[in-house]
Amino acid sequence: MKKNLKILLVEDDPNLGSLLSDYLNAKGHLCVLRNNGEEGYKSFVNESFDFVILDVMMPIKDGFSLAKDIRGIDKEIPLLFLTAKSLSEDKLKGFEAGADDYMTKPFSMEELLARINAILRRSSSNSQELNSEFSIGIFTFNAKIQLLKGGVKEQKLTTKESDLLKLLCKNTNTILERNHALKAVWGDDNYFNGRSMDVYIAKLRKYLKEDATIQIINVHGKGFKLLINS
User: Fold this and answer.
1) pTM of the model as a whole
2) Is 174 in the same domain as 159?
3) Residue 142's domain is classified under what CATH number?
4) Are residues 189 and 97 in the same domain?
5) Helix axes 191-208, 159-170, angle to 10 degrees
C-alpha cells in the first residue's frame, strides 16, 4: 500500500467523520474531511487525491450522485462507499455509480484500512501486468492504462471493468468460469458479488456493441464467453 495517501472523506455525520479522519491521519495519511456532497465535489475538482471515501446518505448531493460526478472526471481513482443500508439494491446502485467496494455501518477502523489496502492491491496488480494489449475486433484494449479504443472513440474503464475485460480477453472463444472471475476481480464468489459482476458484464457489452462480430455470451451454469467472429 502506498504510504501517505491523500484521502477525500465525505461524511455528514460529524462524529463519525472526525473519528475516521483522525484514525486515517494517525496511520500516516492525509485525510481531507467534507460534510456534504457539494463540498466534496468542490474539493475533488480543486485538489488531487489518491483515494475517495463517500457516505451514501448526505445533504445537498448524495454519495451516488457525487460518485458519478467523480467518475466523470477520473475513471481510475479508488472509491469506497460507506452506508447504513445493507440492501442489495443499494449496493448494486453503488457499484453502478463506480464504486470499487462498499462497507455497511457499523464497521471497525481496522476493517476500513483492510478494505483500502485490498482495493489498492487490486489496482496495483492490474497496472503492473506486462501483457496488457489486446485486439478485440475493431477495438484495441490496453489493460495497463484501462483504455478501450475503437476507431476515433475512446472509453476509459474502471479498475473492475478493466480487470474483467482482461480476463475475458485472455479466454477469448473459451469459457471464463464465473467463480474464477469473481475471485479474481471481487475476491469472493458470493451471491451479491455475482449480481455486481452481471452489472459489469452489461457495461462491457454496451462498450463493445459497435462491432457486430463481438459477443459476450452467458454459458448457463458455467460463466461467460467472449466470442469474436472474424
Assistant:
1) 0.56
2) yes
3) 1.10.10.10
4) no
5) 80
